[in-house]
Amino acid sequence: MTPINLLYAHSGGVTAVINATAAAVIEAARAQPGRIGKVFAARRGILGVLAEDLIDTGALDAGALARLARTPGGAFGSCRFDLPADEGEAVTDRLFEVFAAHRIGALLYNGGNGSMDAVARLSAAAQARGYPLVCVGVPKTVDNDIVGTDCCPGFGSAAKYLATSMREAGLDIASMAGRKGSVFVMEVMGRNTGWLAAATALAAGGEADAPPHIVLVPEVVFDEDAFLARVREVTERLGYCAVTVAEGIRKADGSLIMAKSRDERGYVQLGGAGSAVARLIHERFGYKHHWAIPDYLQRAAGHWLSATDRAQAMAVGRAAVEYALAGQDGMMPAIRRLATTPYQWDVVPVASGGIANLERALPADFVAVDGLHVTAAACDYIRPLIEGEVVQPTVGGLPDYRPFALPGVPRQLRPWQG
Amino acid sequence: MTPINLLYAHSGGVTAVINATAAAVIEAARAQPGRIGKVFAARRGILGVLAEDLIDTGALDAGALARLARTPGGAFGSCRFDLPADEGEAVTDRLFEVFAAHRIGALLYNGGNGSMDAVARLSAAAQARGYPLVCVGVPKTVDNDIVGTDCCPGFGSAAKYLATSMREAGLDIASMAGRKGSVFVMEVMGRNTGWLAAATALAAGGEADAPPHIVLVPEVVFDEDAFLARVREVTERLGYCAVTVAEGIRKADGSLIMAKSRDERGYVQLGGAGSAVARLIHERFGYKHHWAIPDYLQRAAGHWLSATDRAQAMAVGRAAVEYALAGQDGMMPAIRRLATTPYQWDVVPVASGGIANLERALPADFVAVDGLHVTAAACDYIRPLIEGEVVQPTVGGLPDYRPFALPGVPRQLRPWQG
Questions:
Q1: What is the pTM (predicted TM-score) of this model?
Q2: Are the C-beta atoms of residues B12 and B112 closer than 8 Å to each other?
């Protein structure tokens, strides 16, 4: 049998460990020289496939792969691009032209819910066209919202970073607590689900009255009165109050909590939920108010990776190569929890078509009855995912994230006009 | 000679290594049992002295002290409180009552510019009253703006955290760069000086076109046209642009760059420089825009300390105890740079009266001629201060920052009515 070439692509927002998955894919594929020929990576995800802009990962030696496996961001570039629903589209034609031109027999697509939809569609398109392609989805998202897997690579490291940040900022604000009262609000990612917000509850470490005192998640309608009453109660008692807010919290009418206003020139200004909530507290009670928005920092914190998360990111990469070789078309390696204490897990295949475009919210028993915090069950679920550290070699006091040599594969087709 | 008691107090905003200074003070004082009796710490800084709310640090065993030396925040509590200028004030009377009641012969005051003024004034007040007190200032500030010392404990760790954060967020945004253009703005602390903003320039590690592409500091008037032109040039060329903004940048008329506006209910909304600059870019060019505000996270990041910074924080603590015992009243241990490559430093005494209330800005040759970045000279100065890592023991994947047992000293005076 002639070896097939394998194509790996990032899809959607990147994480602190998506490169670890990529490195594991490349390593696992190299371990099968009789069955896998070249390992290509798409530059900028599916847009790179359309542009026939492929990288030959053969240029990455063992040292570079080890470094890739601890470098945050997406080394090959990513994009947000939805495949057209109509499979007769020129886009799909072009993808298969590129696959054929480079003898690609396996596509490993590393993304979230939307990417699993793309995997299912490309799998169907290949069958319809009679093109020999095995499509495998590889899970990734800091949002932890993919259905069919116990957790998602990328989440554990972001969760560890945010829980650490809340614990540390909490010590800072506690130091300055006084009679006037101060509040600290940290806005975390999560437009529709509260997984990352929930992770900050681990900061308390089981200590009563330790930060965060309030955790607001999108699964619960924002109740301004109940929220303000709790802020006041905590601040009057402790001198300060630390709050985690998911960016996507909403009012009963479905509108986002954000500081929407017109500036002096008439432009509409949009502030995030964090600043809106901090200002709301300040306006009501006059407390000193601070807010933090880690933004990209929370999904790129390679200096403080969860070793568990990174191990899982690599395991799904290796499993995806196995599935490709076993012809398990349209499947995604999922993480299965075997035990929580001590934590045990393995990787099992699930069909991408069955989970595509779904979104896993926090289960009801992970949210406190009053809607202002998360439960011990949520903490028990998340805790093992943030455990373990990864030592990052440094140069000049900073993590060594030197750029990689990523030579392009010679083009064989006409330029894409899409 | 009867041993004196020593009183240590945090003052002003805390840092990731102010507890390291505190731990070094306690250790150094314990090593002089014949000359120093008790080591007290004020709860909540000078407010705790006024309230006669003192902590007996004797409760901290060697293990607790080692843990204190790697715990961010101010374990004893701090405050912002200016001593009244008139030394005849009731406040000063009360302070000396408390000193006398607890046989305090040395005050170690750990703060910034304003605190050095307090040291000079308390020193003068003690002499005027004939009270035998040695006052020693101990430097601390993430702002790095104390005059008379080459650098300030607290700065190096915040600088390391911010440079790491810019390098990591830069990898994330570079992964997603595309034809539409995206910008990332990180707002860092620095109301009047650009030391922390300058530190993020280390993220580039000497690579051309690496983030941050623009660094805005308060020492330079914000030139909107020049700034936007640079943003456009970088984004059109690279697909993205990463910007560091110090919170205190100002226009030519002296006003802060912030999103000041009225919301729908008529309340004035204040956004920081980071969101204002990000929105300005978005409005002008339509680029996708993100902004991060690390806020307290940048001065509390104990999980990613600079070992150099921590060593200096401990060295000034030990030196302060030496000065107290040598009767070097009104002095502050300063860090002196002996060589940059390899970095060598020592600690020397400077008079707090001569440096009080001054503020050290970035020197002119640390800022690029166009005002949109900092120079290689700035990077050369900052680089050694962020070097070295401190391994943080973790529990459950998070740094072990358990609370400390901090028993109060029995009160001997009437309650303070101030």
A1: 0.97
A2: yes
